[in-house]
From TrEMBL:
Belongs to the DedA family. It comes from the Bacteria. The lineage of its organism: Bacteria, Pseudomonadati, Bacteroidota, Cytophagia, Cytophagales. It is a multi-pass membrane protein. Pfam families: VTT_dom (PF09335). Keywords: Cell membrane, Membrane, Transmembrane, Transmembrane helix. The chain crosses the membrane at residues 20-44, 64-88, 153-174, 180-200. This is VTT domain-containing protein.
């Protein structure tokens, strides 16, 4: 496989419309599974893929009932998160010494760990709607030794909230406004904008909290 073929493959993985049209529900499920628990899959589309899956189901381009689409996504999200949790429990600490690469950035682990420390188990629900953090939060849960039952509770709750709300929203809007299918590019840009703002706000909050903690420690030493 030459370099151009590899580039084309990654372009395909990042193109939600092509994933749905040519890969169908099977590829959607596979991507959801990977993006929810495999650290090297953090770059895969998430939120807007789910929304577009519902939208395409309403137009018939994805030939499955919305109940099948949503339940498949929820199941893949749950299983993907279990994979991330078990990976974190068994090997997660090794990631702290892993060097940065194209498919791994240590700062993503640090950001997810700070996010998890602040929100606890609720982070697993909130993180479902945040790219990158969604991928690493399950690994962090395993690394810090969150009890399996507790993890299961938040894992299932988060998967249900994420895996139902976005596809159903896409399906509902597609039913009410069929012409929206012609504006897929703008929908993707909208989701990217929303998630980028959320990530930036979270990162700034984490930096402030970290700086505040360091200042407090310095004062206490004095």
């Amino acid at each position: 496989m030459d370099f151009s073929s590899i580039v084309d493959f990654f372009k395909f993985l990042l193109d939600s419309e092509e994933i749905i049209q040519y890969g169908g529900l099977a590829l959607i499920v596979l991507i959801v599974y990977a993006e929810n628990g495999l650290f090297f899959a953090f770059f895969l589309p998430g939120d807007y893929l789910l929304f577009l899956a519902g939208l395409f189901a309403s137009s018939g381009q994805l030939n499955f009932p919305i109940t099948t689409v949503s339940s498949s996504i929820v199941g893949a999200a749950i299983l993907g998160s279990y994979t991330g949790y078990l990976f974190g429990k068994l090997l997660g600490k090794n990631l702290d010494t892993r060097k940065d690469s194209l498919f791994f950035k240590k700062r993503y682990m640090d950001q997810s760990r700070t996010f998890f420390a602040k929100y606890g188990g609720k982070a697993l629900i909130l993180a479902r709607f945040m790219p990158i953090v969604r991928t690493f939060s399950t690994i962090i849960a395993g690394t810090v030794g969150m009890p399996f039952r507790t993890f299961t509770l938040f894992n299932v709750a988060g998967a249900l909230a994420w895996g139902i709300s976005l596809p159903v929203a896409g399906y509902y809007l597609g039913e009410r406004f069929p012409q929206i299918i012609n504006y897929v590019e703008y929908i993707i840009l909208f989701f990217i904008g929303i998630t980028t703002v959320a990530l930036i706000r979270t990162f700034i909050t984490m930096r402030r909290n970290r700086a505040g903690g360091q200042t407090k420690s310095s004062v206490e030493k004095l």
